């Protein structure tokens, strides 16, 4: 496969022995996760038991549940791909393996060598052959996919090949231990009477659950070990039904004992759960197929099992396949019937909704048909968004790895779910949705997959009633979106942290109450989507309502301030009521009127820099709120004057010209930030270490920044700065940013590129890539950092390529043209991207020699940079309106 399409386990590691191998195994399982936006399967090894350091598990989008006294979280399910290898009836030992992601085809591959040593004995007393242990090896090739063509389906295939070039048979007499006879390359030197069956290699598939109606005591226990709180009496899941059946048979088979052998595949495992608090039904059905192999159905220790046995012959690979279907009561009235029906269709080679895929190869059924459709779907996705970097293989791989996880995180099946901070790859942040989605991940989809971007924004519109209820509960008008949200859109931010392992103390978490910039973040994303896609129907039906309701929140949230931003005593009709829990919803009469002459500000908020809690006049919050009000004024004639009045008088912050020693164009991050002492250079450290050493209260006393705040606002709202302003703010804030969040490095790289600091920009790009690929923040086991990946795409496209969308001449209009001002970093000879422009693909390319060109159509994937189609050459910084 061409360069840049394969991520191999361990890529980017330091080459030294890990001080915490458990963390590395958990991180590796995250990196190798497969998903399609509906179903996510962590990349644990197939034989890893529940509770292994790799945290085997499966996630289903939208399935949330709350434990007693806890906030809702994404429910973890067992690992559906669990399979054990046995040789000659004995557990096999893993000698070694290699695992890699095929990024282009969306598959996880593995090659492993298994051996059985000392479990069987060579016969004693045979002339010339001493008694003793014998061993045999079997190589197993694994291939796993989560279908990008059919969101409810996943599959895997295992192929076994006898090692050593010898045939192996097992004698398992009733009165003596089994022994292994290794056939020589010629006739056998020592004929041995065989009194039993040939040696078998065995694959055992199972789930850690009990059968129909039984208490899942053992299964629940093992599942509890893997994901605390997942199952059991006090866990998330109640098992309603489970069992084993012939997929096309008339009745399920109760798997309470060995059910014997059958020559009639396929068999199916099935299970039906219900979440205890949210009441969601979740059904799994898995077809197990091994052509010509008898299936033995039995119950293991707290598990349902189906095993297949193979007589292995040199040069004759054998194997089996599993196809899984998952449905919930959010998808179907009877999810178990839907899952069983989908599996039956898939085994026959048909799509779950019926009919064959166009172009399906002749006689392709089961796994082969599912694999073919999946690969075709991934090919289409890559053609719509590929980024090709020449001259820097490491950057190329990092970029494709980022795109891969963004693509498979997208919820293409529903408009009532969005992308959580860790997508469907782990339990980090409990699967909750943050501002990360709209500000960091969504731009990638707006520019490459507008229908998916639209669905993600419709999730916010679906949760608008809950946003309105939150604003009302805090005494304000309009809509305030939850800082952390799940399926309902209600606020799910935990009010307290987990206890500190050293002190046992909990820290108050204020984000759910005062990190309110998310209201403007969601509005900004709606506006940006409309500007790029020209989707007028979305703006009129959905986006305008979000923008207006969030503007009403800001209009009621502001309060009078002095000219220097200091809060003034509240006055009637000039801001939110004093009561945080009003007896009735406040009326629109509390909105400031157009005749008032006060300046307005926003007190007690948290900006993107979460080192500093509950500050006044945070620049990012005030700047985005002002933008939100101005945008709504163009959409709502009823409140236009009031919105414009507040926007024009909303205090943004002090400038450096008013403070000795600060460059004149620098914006103050919040009121009093310029007056804080700066950390001594020797005390500076990366953000997590700094916060751990000083504590939340200690770090707040210094002029240091967790992640870009002022700089983030200047990127999103370029009208607030010119090149000189951006550079002065960069020079001031970049050295004091500790990067205690994964959100910062990519944005710093983007801005450095736009300022022409290409070497520093490349360093930040690599720092962003290392967060996942090298587990640089030591939390990769909890899931992939989706916002970082979206930031990397923005760093390349908006930073290194310098892409800017330009609106039309009207005061309010979508973008009608583009501008490219590339700043390629050292070593990059060219960079080429494919985007969607007004419903059509367009490829943009820049070279190190300064050539910039565009052409219609998607990128050619192989080889990178292939020149097909007609190129139009563009001057740097030139306004360019594609004629197609």
Write up this protein.
The chain is α+β, with helices and mostly antiparallel strands and 884 residues long. The strands form 7 sheets. It has a 10-stranded antiparallel beta sheet. Strand 2 and strand 3 form a beta hairpin. The longest helix has 22 residues, at 536-557. The radius of gyration is 30 Å and the shape is globular. It starts with 5 loop residues before the first strand and ends with a strand. The model is unreliable at 13-19, 118-133, 165-199, 210-229, 250-263 and 576-596 (pLDDT under 50).
User: Level of helix content?
Assistant: 25-40%
Average of per-residue pLDDT values: 83
Shape assignment: globular
N- and C-termini, Cα separation: 33 Å
| Unreliable stretches | 13-19, 118-133, 165-199, 210-229, 250-263, 576-596
Estimate what percentage of residues fall within beta strands: 15-25%
Largest sheet: 10 strands, antiparallel
In which order are the strands of the major sheet placed? 1-8-9-10-11-22-19-18-15-16
Structural class: alpha+beta
- Total of DSSP H or I helical runs spanning 4+ residues: 19
Question: How many strand elements?
Answer: 32
**Radius of gyration over all CA atoms, rounded:** 30 Å
Task: Describe the SSE topology.
Blueprint: E1 6-8, H1 21-31, E2 34-35, E3 39-41, E4 58-65, E5 73-77, E6 83-87, E7 90-91, E8 93-102, E9 107-122, E10 132-146, E11 153-162, E12 168-171, E13 179-182, E14 201-207, H2 217-226, E15 237-246, E16 252-253, E17 261-262, E18 267-275, E19 281-289, E20 295-300, E21 303-310, E22 318-328, H3 335-348, H4 366-385, E23 387-390, H5 393-409, H6 435-448, H7 450-462, H8 464-473, H9 511-514, H10 518-533, H11 536-557, E24 559-561, E25 599-601, H12 619-635, H13 640-649, H14 687-699, H15 710-716, H16 723-733, H17 744-754, H18 758-773, H19 786-800, E26 803-807, E27 815-820, E28 830-837, E29 840-847, E30 852-856, E31 872-874, E32 879-880
Antiparallel strand pairs: 1-8, 2-3, 3-4, 4-5, 6-7, 6-14, 8-9, 9-10, 10-11, 11-22, 12-13, 14-21, 15-16, 15-18, 17-20, 18-19, 19-22, 20-21, 23-28, 24-25, 26-27, 27-32, 28-29, 29-30, 30-31
């Amino acid at each position: 496969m061409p360069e840049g399409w394969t991520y191999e386990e361990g890529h980017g590691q330091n080459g030294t022995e890990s001080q915490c191998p458990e963390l590395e195994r958990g991180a590796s399982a995250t990196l190798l996760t497969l998903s399609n936006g509906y179903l996510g399967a962590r990349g644990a090894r197939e034989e890893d038991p529940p509770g292994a350091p790799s945290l085997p598990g499966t996630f289903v989008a939208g399935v949330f549940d709350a434990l007693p006294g806890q906030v809702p979280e994404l429910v973890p399910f067992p690992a559906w791909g669990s399979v054990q290898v046995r040789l000659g009836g004995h557990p096999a030992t893993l000698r070694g393996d290699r695992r890699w992601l095929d990024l282009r085809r969306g598959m996880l591959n593995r090659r492993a060598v298994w051996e059985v040593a000392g479990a069987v004995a060579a016969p004693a007393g045979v002339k010339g052959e001493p008694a003793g242990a014998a061993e045999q090896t079997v190589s197993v090739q694994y291939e796993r996919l989560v279908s990008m063509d059919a969101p409810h389906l996943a599959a895997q295939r295992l192929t076994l090949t006898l090692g050593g070039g010898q045939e192996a048979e097992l004698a398992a007499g009733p009165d003596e231990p089994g022994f292994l006879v290794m056939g020589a390359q010629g006739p056998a030197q020592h004929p041995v009477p065989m009194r039993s069956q040939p040696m078998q290699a065995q694959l055992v598939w199972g789930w850690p659950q009990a059968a129909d109606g039984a208490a899942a005591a053992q299964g629940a226990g093992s599942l509890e070990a893997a994901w605390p709180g997942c199952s059991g009496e006090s866990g998330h899941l109640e098992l309603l039904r489970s069992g084993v059946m012939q997929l096309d048979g008339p009745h399920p088979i109760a798997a309470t004992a060995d059910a014997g052998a059958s020559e009639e595949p396929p068999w199916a495992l099935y299970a039906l759960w219900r979440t205890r608090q949210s009441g969601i039904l979740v059904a799994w059905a898995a077809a197990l197929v091994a052509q010509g192999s008898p299936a033995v159905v039995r119950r293991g220790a707290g598990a349902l099992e189906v095993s297949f046995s193979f007589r292995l012959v040199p040069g004759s690979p054998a194997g089996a396949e599993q196809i899984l279907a998952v449905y919930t009561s959010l998808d179907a009235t009877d999810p178990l019937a839907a899952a069983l029906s989908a599996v039956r269709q898939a085994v026959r080679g048909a799509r779950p909704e019926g009919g064959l895929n166009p172009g399906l190869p002749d006689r392709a059924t089961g796994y082969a048909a599912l694999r073919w459709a999946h690969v075709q779907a991934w090919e289409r996705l890559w053609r719509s968004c590929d980024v090709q970097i020449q001259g820097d293989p490491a950057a190329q791989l990092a970029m494709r790895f980022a795109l891969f996880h963004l693509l498979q995180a997208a919820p293409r099946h529903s408009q009532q779910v969005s992308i959580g901070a860790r997508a469907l790859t782990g339990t980090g942040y409990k699967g909750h949705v943050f501002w990360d989605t709209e500000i960091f991940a969504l731009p990638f989809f707006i520019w490459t997959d507008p229908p998916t971007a639209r669905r993600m924004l419709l999730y916010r519109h679906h949760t608008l009633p809950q946003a309105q209820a939150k604003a009302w509960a805090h005494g304000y008008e309009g809509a305030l979106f939850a800082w952390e949200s799940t399926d309902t859109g209600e606020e799910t931010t935990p009010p307290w942290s987990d206890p500190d392992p050293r002190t046992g103390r909990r820290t108050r978490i204020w984000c759910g109450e005062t990190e309110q910039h998310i209201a403007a973040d969601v509005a900004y994303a709606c506006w940006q989507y409309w500007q790029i896609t020209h989707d007028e129907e979305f703006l009129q039906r959905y986006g305008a309502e979000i923008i207006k309701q969030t503007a009403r929140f800001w209009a009621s949230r502001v309060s009078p301030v002095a000219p220097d931003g200091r809060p003034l005593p509240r006055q009637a009709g000039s801001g939110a009521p004093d009561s945080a829990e009003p007896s009735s919803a406040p009326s629109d009469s509390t909105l400031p009127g157009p005749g008032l002459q006060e300046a307005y500000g926003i007190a007690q908020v948290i900006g993107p820099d979460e080192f500093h809690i509950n500050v006044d006049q945070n620049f990012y919050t005030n700047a985005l709120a002002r933008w939100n009000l101005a945008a709504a004024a163009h959409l709502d004639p009823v409140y236009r004057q009031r919105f414009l009045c507040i926007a024009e008088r909303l205090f943004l912050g002090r400038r450096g010209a008013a403070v000795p020693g600060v460059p004149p164009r620098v914006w103050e991050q919040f009121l009093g930030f310029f007056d804080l002492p700066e950390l001594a250079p020797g005390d500076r450290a990366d953000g997590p270490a700094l916060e751990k050493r000083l504590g939340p209260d200690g770090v707040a006393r210094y002029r240091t920044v967790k992640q870009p705040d002022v700089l983030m606002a200047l990127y999103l709202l370029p009208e607030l700065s010119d090149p000189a302003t951006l550079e002065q703010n960069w020079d001031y804030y970049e050295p004091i940013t500790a990067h205690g969040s994964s959100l910062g490095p990519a944005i710093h790289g983007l801005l450095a590129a736009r300022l022409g600091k290409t070497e520093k920009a490349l360093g930040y790009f690599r720092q962003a890539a290392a967060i996942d690929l090298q587990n640089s923040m030591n939390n990769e086991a909890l899931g992939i950092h989706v916002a970082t990946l979206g930031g990397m795409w923005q760093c390349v496209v908006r930073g290194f390529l310098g892409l800017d969308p330009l609106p039309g001449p009207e005061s309010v209009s979508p973008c009608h043209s583009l501008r490219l001002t590339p700043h390629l970093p050292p070593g990059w000879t060219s960079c080429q991207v494919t985007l969607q422009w007004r419903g059509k693909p367009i490829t943009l390319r820049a070279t190190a020699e300064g050539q910039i060109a565009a052409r219609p159509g998607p990128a050619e994937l192989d080889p990178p940079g292939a020149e097909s189609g007609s190129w139009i050459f563009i001057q740097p910084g030139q306004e360019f309106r594609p004629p197609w």
